[in-house]
Every structure is written in C-alpha cells, then in structure tokens.
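thought: fold this chain, then report.
action: predict
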Amino acid sequence: MFILQWGDLGGNWGVNRSISQIHAYLYLAEAPLTAEDIAHDLGMARSNVSNSIKELLAWNLIHRVPIRSDRRDHFVAETDVWEIAARIAAGRKARELDPALTTLRACVDGADNDPAVTPVKRERLRNMLEFTEAVDRWYGQMLSLPQSKRAAILKLGSKIVSFLPGGKKKKSKSGADK
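observation:
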C-alpha cells in the first residue's frame, strides 16, 4: 500500500509515478535489489525501471552497492528521512528556486531600466524577488543546522513565535505573564 500511495504522492509533486514507486520499494527493502528484481516485483517494464533508477541516482536518493560474486548492479535507497528530505529539497532548489531567482533578478533589473514599466509593477517584482531571496536564505540556514536542531524547530512549529521579539509571553508557574 505504501508503495502505491508514494507513487500517487509523487505524481502530485510532479514526479513520475514509477520513479516514486521504485523509491518507496527500495526504501522499504531490507537488502540491495537489482533492476530485474524491481521490475519483476513491481510488474514494471525493465526499461521503465532502468530510466527511473537513473533519475533516482541523479537525485542521490539511491546508490549502487557491490555484491560479491554478482556482476549485476544492486541498489539501495537512503533510509534517513532527514537526508532524503534534504536531498529532495536540494534538487528542487536547483531545478526550481535557482532559475526563479535568476529570472526575477533579470526582470527587476529590466523593469528598473524600462520607463514603460509602472512603479506598481516594479514594486511587485521587487516584492516577489525579496520573498524568493528570503526563502533561498532560509533554505541555506536550515541546511546548515545540525539535524537535531532542524528536528527541534520542526517540532516547535508555531510555538517558535514565542522566542521572537513581540512573540507570545510565557506564563510563569503562578499564571502571570513574564
């Protein structure tokens, strides 16, 4: 069930369903598997499996492992969920966020030098660029933190606001604001 659902989720995220299913299958696998094993067990064409494996290798979500006395390629998936998330985020940043930043910077520069662009449009372009740059900075900051700190931040959720200036006041044991 997980393999099918992961495949569907991948489709929702713009990832080929087969790639997502193979990733899920390897993630759950307790031993390295060959492309033939994967094709047989998932009922997929060998060519589809080969192409999907190439994509997963490019995303660094799986890797080849040697097996003594077997010349075939065997594959295992990264199983650390934090590492999986970091690798997916890095891939998406490179494919989506970095080109968006390049385009937005060019648009802002072009708008600043074009008298036909209204001040409202210039401001909206600058706002979009500033937001996208902030997301890029946040991504870099989060990635530079140790995994334990990222986990703590994730667990804090909206409670993190209480640590910010002007955030919620903490209550003392007596119930009074500090």
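thought: worth noting. The mean pLDDT is 91.
final: tokens above.
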